[in-house]
Amino acid sequence: MVGNAFAGPLKRREFLRVGTLALGGLTLPHLLQLRAAAGTGQRNTSVILFWMWGGPSQLETYDMKPAAPSEYRGPLRPIATSVPGLQICEYMPLQAQIAERFSIIRSLHHEMSAHNDGSIEMLTGKVPTVPDPLSLARSEHPDFGMIASRLRPPHPGGLPNYIGAQKAPFMTDPGYLGVSHKAFETGDPSKADFAPKNLTLITGNDNGRLEDRKGLLTQFDGLRKFLDRGDDGIEEFRACAFNILTSPQVANAFDLSQEKTKLREQYGQHRWGQSCLLARRLAEAGAAVINIDATAPNDTTKHFSWDDHAGAFHIDYAQRERLPQMDQALTALINDLYDRNLTDDVLVIACGEFGRTPRLTHAPKNFSDQIGLGRDHWPHAFSALIAGGGLRMGQVVGQTNSKSEYPTHDPVTPQDLLATVYRHLGIDYRHEFTNFAGRPVPILSSGRPIPQLV
Predict the structure, then answer these.
(1) Can you tell me the distance from the alpha carbon of 325 to that of 52, in angstroms, rounded to the nearest whole number?
(2) What distance in Å separates the CA atoms of residue 298 and residue 289, rounded to the nearest whole number?
(3) 319 and 427 housed in the same domain
(4) pLDDT class for 303, splitting at 50, 70, 90?
(5) Which sign does the torsion angle of CA 404, 72, 296, 132 carry?
(6) How many separate domains does the chain show?
(7) Cα angle 403-406-410, degrees, rounded to a multiple of 5
(8) Which residue of 27, 289, 301, 410 has the fewest C-beta atoms within 10 A of its own C-beta?
(9) Boundary (domain end) residue, out of 231, 252, 273
(10) Which pLDDT score is estimated for 196?
(11) Which of these, 379, 375, 316, lies nearest to 353 by C-alpha position?
(12) Are residues 7 and 29 in the same domain?
């Protein structure tokens, strides 16, 4: 690791020498008060979500239709995998070699055709009260990572239960759970000087800097400024912040320099690869949910999301850049979990908020001044990869019709997928919270764990 980014946490004695000023007058007894969590207390399981915001095309990834007419099947070809009868896109040869280690869901579906609306349903299990075709909607309900943060017991070493590798989904909010359950965002782990921006307080405890109360107060306020809304959650946030800032376990979990160069290269020296490696470290250290922001494969790409409209991208050129990086990162992650005997404890999901229209669209010019070839939003049938979690691997769940327009067998809803996630996390998805209006809100109003997988 470059420089002193992970020089080590503050000792608790040194932290307390700062005095109450830096914590806004909060005393140690108050600082150490955490609300009782309400999880089931099962084994230490984790979920890693490779979140492909924008809506990856099922026809160019996991549900190819080579026998469909050309205006549907697209320009990419399928390849065989290690599972007989299962084909995936030609740009994912590494996944093809280990297909027995994951399963594909081909029959996901819902009715939300805007990005934020679809994301909200996929991440919360709730349908937006007023769908917003402009994709400006924000969720009234917390996503599954926030719920895990609330219901899973606090990590004994101070590691946050919900972490956004790079960043977390922007359209969800903890709402009635309290602001302390918002995801901890790490920044880009592929950068040479990577150190999570909100952990910078653990460094630089020499030359009397701890005596500079005003400077420390400024740093701490920067850590919490977007959270301090005067609600009850800020007290828990302060307590969590204390644990984060003083925990060697947290510093070690984020320290990618502890990994061998060969393994880092296997994951890929790019944002997705190093985010997957960081996610494995965080899951192994005990974080409940790690969301990987699978957009912007590198700092220069024009293929910044999976939103393959013809006016934006050419779907072949876009997938040719994205898929090899995704293929490398996910394959390394799945293999690494197997090598470490973590496949029962860690569940990996790769998906977006919906799929793409079965019929191709065209545009005279796209963002790269090319002829555009793409697909529009399509929530009626799309795919997801799922691996680990002690589930049944090496199979396809569900089936779509000959043009991938809609499911024909074993349809799966976002609520079903989330019920599977909550089962793995040891959370009762029938549990109810009380919203701001004083009304009970169940985690899920429908859905069941996917029977083919459990």
Answers:
(1) 13
(2) 24
(3) yes
(4) confident
(5) negative
(6) 2
(7) 120
(8) 27
(9) 252
(10) 75
(11) 379
(12) yes
Name the token pair of 378: 């399509």
Going by pLDDT thresholds of 50, 70 and 90, the confidence category of residue 22 is: very low
Buried b (16+ CB within 10 A) or exposed e, 424-436: bbbbebebebeee
Same domain, yes or no: 162 and 88: yes
How high is the pLDDT of residue 7?
46
Report which residue type is found at 139.
S
3-state SS record for the chain: CCCCCCCCCCCHHHHHHCCCHHHCCCCHHHHCCCCCCCCCCCCCCEEEEEECCCCCCHHHCCCCCCCCCHHHHCCCCEEECCCCCCEEECCCHHHHHCHHHCEEEEEECCCCCCHHHHHHHHHHCCCCCCCCCCCCCCCCCCCHHHHHHHHCCCCCCCCCCEEEEECCCCCCCCHHHCHHHCCEECECCCCCCCCCHHHHHHCCCCCCHHHCHHHHHHHHHHHHCCCCCCCCHHHHHHHHHHHHHCCHHHHHHCCHHHCCHHHHHHHCCCHHHHHHHHHHHHHHHCCCEEEEECCCCCCCCCCCCCCCCCCCCEHHHHHHHHHHHHHHHHHHHHHHHHHCCCCCCEEEEEECCCEECCCCEEECCCCCCCCEEECCEECCCEEEEEEECCCCCCCEECEECCCCCCEEECCECHHHHHHHHHHHHCCCCCCEEECCCCCEEECCCCCCCCCCCC
What is the per-residue pLDDT for 343?
98
The pLDDT tens digits of the residues spanning 337-382 come to: 999 999 999 999 999 999 999 999 999 999 889 999 999 999 999 9
Mean pLDDT computed over 175-188: 92
Q: Are residues 424 and 342 in the same domain?
A: yes
As given in the structure block, the two tokens for residue 119 are 């994301």
Q: Does 208 share its domain with 192?
A: no
The answer to whether the beta carbons of residues 434 and 441 sit under 8 Å apart is: yes
Residue 89 and residue 179 in one domain: yes
Q: How many other C-beta atoms are found inside a 10 Å radius of the C-beta of residue 224?
A: 17
Evaluate whether 78 touches 320 at the Cβ level (below 8 Å).
no
Instruction: Give domain status of residue 162, yes or no.
Output: yes
Task: Looking at the structure, tell me whether residues 219 and 307 fall in a common domain.
Answer: no
State whether 19 and 60 are in the same domain: no
Rg (CA), the chain: 22
What's the token pair of residue 311?
């006016």
Q: Is residue 451 part of a domain?
A: no
Answer whether residue 435 is part of any domain.
yes
